[in-house]
Amino acid sequence: MSTQTTTSVSERALLLLEIIAKADEPPTLNELVAAIELPKATTHRFIVLLEQLGFAQRTMDGKRYEIGYRLTSLAIDAMRHSFQLAPRRMILSALVEEIGETCNVTMLDGQQLIYLDRVESDWPLQIRLKIGSRVPLHCTASGKLFLSLAPPSLRRTLFSLSTLERHTARTMTSPEELEIALEQIRKTRIGTDNEEFIDGMTAVAVPVMDSNGKICATVAVHGPSGRLPLARAIALAPALKRAAHAIEQTIHFPENLRDKKSAHFKTLGVTA
Questions:
Q1: In this structure, what CATH number is given to the domain that contains residue 130?
Q2: β-strand 134-136 against 112-119: which pairing, if any?
């Protein structure tokens, strides 16, 4: 296989992954064919290869395609290293210095959240969740924020795949009860955790939006409820939002790159 052919194959495989990752709903094979403008058989060969490598996978009904475990793992590793080395770490540190409480950045990882970065305050009493820790969605401020801004179909899928495990007396374990709470969070765009995950801990989270206007991460504050009652945590939301907006500026695509990419996604109605 020539270098030119190899490059073409690589580019098309990467483009397929990009289309899948940016689609609002997992695309079908026919939608991928229309988006990439290749013969159906060729597109199918590419997607089968990506499945075999773990970079793409079929949805539970077998009719659509979503990103696979290896791509998710790669994205998380890239984001984690980026958060440690880029100005985003400085933004988070400045936020902690401003509000005097421990703050973190999280990202969605399947049916859980992963802590990408955290900066601790100087208080001797700390609730420590290490970088790389995974926590549930339904009872954490960041997790509930992700759920509130997710498509209803995704929430239903997540609810059907796992039970809402009780962690404290305040954990919401009823999908109906949780849906009511998520509706309020959707309106305020502020996720809250009032001792729902860990007894004696409160937390508040705000979204970090990507260049498509979709949530890609969160900035959150948490602390002991005796020092950081929920009302005070919510009052810190404006400072969290300023930090989130500053982080957004570090991950948005340059305008010229966004223009070049936009044509690839018109068929699926995705904004690049």
A1: 3.30.450.40
A2: antiparallel
Q: Which residues pair with 28 in a beta bridge?
A: 64
Q: Is 59 exposed, middle or buried (0-12, 13-18, 19+ CB in 10 A)?
A: middle
Provide the domain limits for residue 50.
3-67
Task: State pLDDT tens for residues 165-212.
Answer: 999 999 999 988 999 999 999 999 999 999 999 999 999 999 999 888
Alpha carbon of 55 to those of 19, 70, 71, 108, 259: distances in Å? 13, 5, 5, 17, 26
Number of Cβ within 10 Å of residue 15's Cβ equals: 18
Angle at which helix 237-251 crosses helix 87-99, to 10 degrees, equals: 170
From 262, 266, 265, select the one nearest 254 (Cα to Cα). Answer: 262
pLDDT-derived band of residue 78, with 50, 70 and 90 as boundaries?
low
> Are residues 184 and 115 part of one domain?
yes
Q: Partners of 201 in the beta sheet? A: 224
Report yes or no: 113 and 107 within 8 Å, Cβ to Cβ. yes
Same-domain check for residues 38 and 106: no
